[in-house]
Amino acid sequence: MNEPYEPDRKFVENLEWQLTSEFRRTSRLKPSRRVAVPRIAVVLTLVACALMTGVAAIKAADLIKDSWRRKIEVAKAETEVRLQRAFVDFKNQQAVKAQDQAAKGLISQEDYHAKKFVADVSVLDLQKVQLNLEEVLVSGEAPRNELHAPLVGGRDFVAERLETEKKTRQLDLDLRRSRVEQRLRQLVQKGLAGKSQLDDFQATSEAEQAAFESAQQRLELRRQFIGGELSAQEVEIRDRMSLAERDLRRAQFNVDYLTKKLEDLRRLAVKGMVPESDVQGMQLGVNAAQQELTLAQLEIEILKSIK
């Protein structure tokens, strides 16, 4: 028998059921405190949720897609760096070997400096592909070289690559002016080289000078764009104009140079000293140079008409 005032298990279970039932009944009798929401608001909320879910799904798909694109771009950039680094090592070894040979009188100083130039340029090319890799790692996209391209992570990769290109052009011009041209002139004076060889060299030097000046102009345009002095459209038009003027200058030089060579070949052909096929080949070269000249002139006219 249970002790006095100590309820048994059956009594407790029955009491629990009664209290629960009473609580439910009183809850149903209480007035509702829910705020009435228009049906249209509910519908719009559901639509918004659906749209947000769709946008999230699209963004997720884009992220996945960008992920594999980024991996490809990074792999390409890393491969270019590895290949260029191996090329630099090879060219540096050749330059060191050439320096030793020049010291022993086995090769000329001009030959050594030519190999040294190739090694120095390969180092600059390595810097450029390393810049490409660094940009890809930050942006996840292929490097951009347009003058109106935005900064990437606060860094101006476009200007850095242009600086590298400018240094390359400067190295080439310095070597040409200080050694190669002087050596060629000496050989021509001694009758060991033809005047045409010197002319050919001066023609390529003119092209390198134009390329160097173009790199300088593009750097200045980039500076003006980043500084807010030029809009994207303005800098693109001016860049195109600069390149077109470079091409015009180079094409005009080629037309004059090749026309003179054509005249020389014609005089030799009359004397039977060169075959007519050489004259025809040179004529094709003159025609091609004239077409390049016409194209550059047309591009400049079109660019000037843009307001």
List the helices and strands and how they pair.
Blueprint lengths: L8 H21 L9 H65 L5 H31 L17 H33 L5 H32 L5 H39 L5 H30 L2
Q: For the CA atoms, what is the radius of gyration?
A: 38 Å
Helix proportion: over 70%
Averaged pLDDT, please? 82
Q: What is the oligomer described by this structure? A: single chain
Shape: extended
Strand runs, count: 0
Proportion of β residues? under 5%
Query: What is the terminal separation in angstroms?
Result: 109 Å
| H/E element sequence | HHHHHHH
Q: Helix/strand-derived class?
A: mainly alpha
Given as residue ranges, the uncertain stretches (5+ residues, pLDDT < 50) are 30-37
Number of helices: 7
How is this structure best described in words?
The protein is mostly helical and 307 residues long. It is 82% helix and 0% strand. Among the domains are: 90 residues; 77 residues. α2 runs antiparallel to α3 and α5 packs antiparallel against α6. It starts with 8 loop residues before the first helix and ends with a helix. About 3% of the residues have low confidence.
Brief description of this entry?
This protein is mostly helical and 307 residues long.
List the main descriptive attributes of the protein structure presented here.
about 300 residues, mainly alpha, 7 helices, about 0% strand
